[in-house]
Specification:
about 45 residues; mainly alpha; 1 helix
């Protein structure tokens, strides 16, 4: 019974964590693409 409750509580949190991680990856990719397109000579 306790294991079922823990799994029930863990699933939405894991899904939310996965969604946040995916959003962070997409944001980093988008930021990298924007920097490469609009600032091609950024370091120098």
């Amino acid at each position: 019974m306790d294991n079922d409750t823990k799994n029930g509580d863990g699933s939405p949190k894991f899904g939310r964590l996965l969604l946040v991680l995916l959003a962070a990856v997409v944001f980093c990719v988008l930021l990298t693409w924007v920097m490469s397109v609009y600032f091609p000579n950024f370091p120098s």
